[in-house]
């Protein structure tokens, strides 16, 4: 997106704060709302994130068709789940910064809806990719891992920066894979905070992942991603 | 600063380009993302690599071989991601046009940024390695550090940084850094999947520290000198890859300067040549009898020799002698064997010493490897029983108590059976006497498998006798109970007199007292 384009999106994102009281017609308001959502999504590279998620699902599907040993078969889905979660998290960074934050009344709702929709899309796409194959852990595992790792990324986006939010999920991948490894190389890591190493029906792991996702979602909805001065994309 | 001092500062820059490059590097070091990602890399190393490495027995070869792949994986994500992030910096900050008109050529700026990223990553890596080596130095009872595995992991850092940096520079975007970070883990972590046997090109992957599926090999560096054939090939590959990627990165930007372009082209070609050659060499590797991957073109036969050492021995009835690197296992091993050794010490044909030996390795089909001891289990006029500790064999890592348990239940009966000549084809009397001696030593029945199960010898081809468990209620079992209940002196006297006949199969069950 060009600089001109980002300015237009910024202005449109801010528009409802003044236009909403005087918007007389439902059709016009609806169209404006759709345009607002689209501009927000474009500014956050949501279409690219959707493509990345689809690529992850396709990659998982192709990979599952191959022959893997135990290590590969167990750790493979986690890599793609992390990649999909990272794609969701990458949309948290704002290219507009302070001006948009000050004027965008609908921003929290847009952040909430976008993040939820993308997370659901990521989990759904990966689960669909694993349908009919020997996907280690199954659909529940995918849902838990994607949600939890996305939550880690959202927390990183709010605390470190939107651009560097990938650090959390990428860093969590290694302990997650290690937790899986220790399931057959004792002593096993059984803490529910390393949920990739727990069975799909483990309640503690599901609670931990859900808690992290809920916290990340709440923080990113209310505060948005932290901006680093001078960083744009 | 006053206006009169300003020209004095700017003057030397043009005349001393080396200083300018150093100053640029210093600036990059101060503003590099890797500096802030270092704690993440160190934490990952500590949580996974150090945990795994320090969990292995305190043998230099095991520790260093375990550290290499784990360190590479721990640093892959952070280094690749940070390098990609730094590579996309100019695009992210919209400063491409601004910096393009500065005095420094673009290749110099790019290389300075990559070098700064690599420097911080190497500082973190070396600090982690230093801690692991220091702890191992305190715990190891023999030998010294092996540097090649650490060098392979160290050579991986610049290569990953170069790949990440190139990706960030060529395809800048918010998805590039995370994609590169995860791709680094994916490619490295799963690069061992295509390895089948010891002659695989994929052994060039830096997470391969030896024969794949053999795991860290306790023989190398203890019984035999460490051979860095595969490590040399890996380091050459990584250096070549780094040179090729960096050369290719600056190639298009040197279009205006012919000499620079020519140099970049030469570096790229040399790097590709080195990388390709090393991959080809890795494909010629084979598993040798000592369990290492030997690459004929890189193999130094002169250094391929057994290492000299003075074994450490126990003060049991029959001395148990281990390699000094395994000295920490001597008390547990001796304690596990002592009751059984007390039963056979001094008998004709009993070993004069139990001595640990090196295992021999043979590549089987696909990734299977057979381990054993060549030759007879006992050797010399004064018989020596050649012992393989369970931790020398394939399988999960064992604690000292787990290993002692296996020595007690597998190695001990094997030693007893070697004295009585027991085995699947032996007579009922031989089965009974072996069982009786084990009963007298307090080993049967609690520590052995159930009736009908043969206790395996301590490794394929390890030799030794083979204890055959007896079914309770059988005549042989009754004879064993009777013989085992005899006073120790009576049993010993009978054995001294009849052991040769027993071994020859000339004594039946009814002849047992």
Spatial order of the strands forming the largest sheet of chain B:
3-4-5-9-8
Using only CA atoms, what is the Rg of chain B?
A: 31 Å
Low-pLDDT segments, ≥5 res of chain A:
1-24
Helix fraction bin of chain A: 55-70%
Give structural notes:
The complex is a heterodimer of chains A (233) and B (513). Chain A is mainly α and 233 residues long. Chain A has helices at residues 3-14, 16-19, 26-43, 46-64, 70-90, 98-103, 107-130, 138-159, 167-181, 203-223. In chain A, helix 8 (138-159) packs antiparallel against helix 9. The relative contact order of chain A is 0.13. Mean pLDDT of chain A is 85; it is low at 1-24. Chain B folds into 2 domains: 20-303, no CATH class; 312-511. Chain B has 513 residues and is mainly α. In chain B, strand 3 and strand 4 form a beta hairpin. In chain B, the strands form 3 sheets. Chain B has a 5-stranded mixed beta sheet with strand order 3-4-5-9-8, covered by helices on one side. In chain B, strands 1-2 form a two-stranded antiparallel ribbon. The model of chain B is unreliable at 1-7 and 449-463 (pLDDT under 50). In chain B, helix 4 (60-87) packs parallel to helix 8 (148-170) and helix 4 (60-87) packs antiparallel against helix 9 (176-189). Chain B is elongated, with a radius of gyration of 31 Å. The chains are: A mainly alpha (233), B mainly alpha (513). The interface between A and B is medium-sized, with 35 and 34 residues.
């Amino acid at each position: 997106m060009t600089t001109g384009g980002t300015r237009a999106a910024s202005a449109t994102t801010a528009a409802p704060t003044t236009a909403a009281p005087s918007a007389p017609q439902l059709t016009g308001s609806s169209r404006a709302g759709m345009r607002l959502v689209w501009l927000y999504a474009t500014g956050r590279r949501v279409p690219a994130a959707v493509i990345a998620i689809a690529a992850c699902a396709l990659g998982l599907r192709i990979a599952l068709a191959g022959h893997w040993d135990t290590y590969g078969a167990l750790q493979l889905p986690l890599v793609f789940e992390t990649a999909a979660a990272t794609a969701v998290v990458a949309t948290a960074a704002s290219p507009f910064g302070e001006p948009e934050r000050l004027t965008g009344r609908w921003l929290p709702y847009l952040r909430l809806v976008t993040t939820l929709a993308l997370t659901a899309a990521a989990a759904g796409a990966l689960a669909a990719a694993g349908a009919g194959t020997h996907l280690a852990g199954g659909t529940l595992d995918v849902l838990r891992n994607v949600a939890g790792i996305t939550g880690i990324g959202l927390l990183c986006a709010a605390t470190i920066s939107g651009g560097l939010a990938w650090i959390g999920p990428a860093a969590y991948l290694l302990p997650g894979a290690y937790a899986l490894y220790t399931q057959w190389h004792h002593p096993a890591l059984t803490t529910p905070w390393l949920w990739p190493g727990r069975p799909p029906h483990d309640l503690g792991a599901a609670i931990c992942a859900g808690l992290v996702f809920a916290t990340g979602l709440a923080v990113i909805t209310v505060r948005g991603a932290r901006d680093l001065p001078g960083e744009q994309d | 600063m006053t206006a009169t001092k300003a020209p004095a500062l700017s003057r030397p820059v043009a005349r001393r380009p080396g200083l300018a490059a150093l100053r640029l590097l210093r600036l990059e070091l101060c503003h590099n993302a890797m500096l802030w990602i270092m704690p993440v890399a160190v934490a990952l190393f500590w949580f996974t690599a150090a945990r795994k490495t320090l969990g292995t027995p305190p043998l230099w070869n095991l520790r260093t071989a375990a550290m290499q792949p784990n360190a590479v994986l721990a640093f892959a994500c952070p280094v690749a991601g940070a390098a990609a992030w730094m590579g996309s910096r100019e695009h992210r900050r919209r400063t491409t046009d601004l910096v393009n008109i500065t005095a420094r050529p673009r290749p110099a700026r790019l290389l300075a940024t990559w070098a700064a990223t690599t420097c911080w990553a190497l500082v973190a890596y070396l600090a982690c390695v230093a801690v692991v080596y220091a702890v191992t130095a305190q715990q190891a009872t023999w030998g010294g550090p092996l540097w090649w595995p650490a060098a392979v992991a160290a050579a991986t850092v610049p290569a990953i940084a170069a790949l990440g940096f190139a990706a960030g520079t060529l395809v800048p975007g918010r998805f590039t850094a995370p994609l590169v970070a995860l791709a680094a883990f994916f490619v490295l972590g799963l690069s061992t999947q295509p390895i089948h046997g010891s002659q695989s090109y994929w052994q060039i992957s830096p997470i391969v520290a030896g024969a794949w599926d053999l795991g860290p090999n306790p023989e190398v560096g203890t019984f035999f000198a460490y051979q860095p054939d595969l490590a040399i090939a890996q380091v050459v590959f990584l250096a070549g890859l780094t040179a090729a990627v960096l050369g290719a990165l600056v190639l298009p930007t040197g279009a205006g300067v012919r000499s620079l372009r020519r140099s970049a082209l030469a570096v790229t070609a040399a790097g590709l040549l080195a990388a390709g050659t090393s991959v080809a060499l890795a494909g010629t590797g084979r598993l040798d009898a000592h369990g290492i991957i030997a690459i004929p073109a890189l193999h130094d036969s002169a250094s391929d020799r057994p290492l000299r050492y003075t074994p450490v021995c126990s003060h049991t009835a029959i001395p148990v002698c281990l390699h000094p690197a395994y000295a920490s296992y001597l008390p547990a091993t001796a304690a596990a064997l002592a009751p059984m050794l007390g039963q056979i010490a001094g008998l004709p044909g009993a070993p004069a010493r139990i001595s640990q030996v090196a295992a021999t390795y043979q590549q089987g089909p696909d990734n299977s490897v057979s381990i054993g001891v060549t030759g007879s289990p006992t050797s010399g006029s004064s018989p020596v029983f050649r012992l393989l500790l369970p931790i020398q064999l394939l399988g999960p890592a064992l604690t000292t108590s787990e290993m002692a348990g296996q020595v007690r239940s597998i190695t001990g009966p094997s030693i007893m059976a070697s004295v009585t000549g027991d085995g699947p084809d032996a007579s009922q009397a031989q089965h009974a006497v072996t069982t009786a001696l084990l009963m007298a030593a307090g080993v049967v029945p609690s520590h052995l498998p159930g009736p009908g199960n043969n206790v395996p010898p301590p490794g394929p081809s390890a030799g030794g006798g083979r204890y055959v468990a007896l079914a309770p209620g059988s005549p042989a079992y009754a004879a064993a109970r009777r013989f085992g209940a005899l006073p120790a002196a009576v049993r010993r006297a009978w054995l001294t007199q009849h052991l040769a006949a027993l071994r020859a199969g000339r004594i039946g069950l009814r002849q047992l007292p």
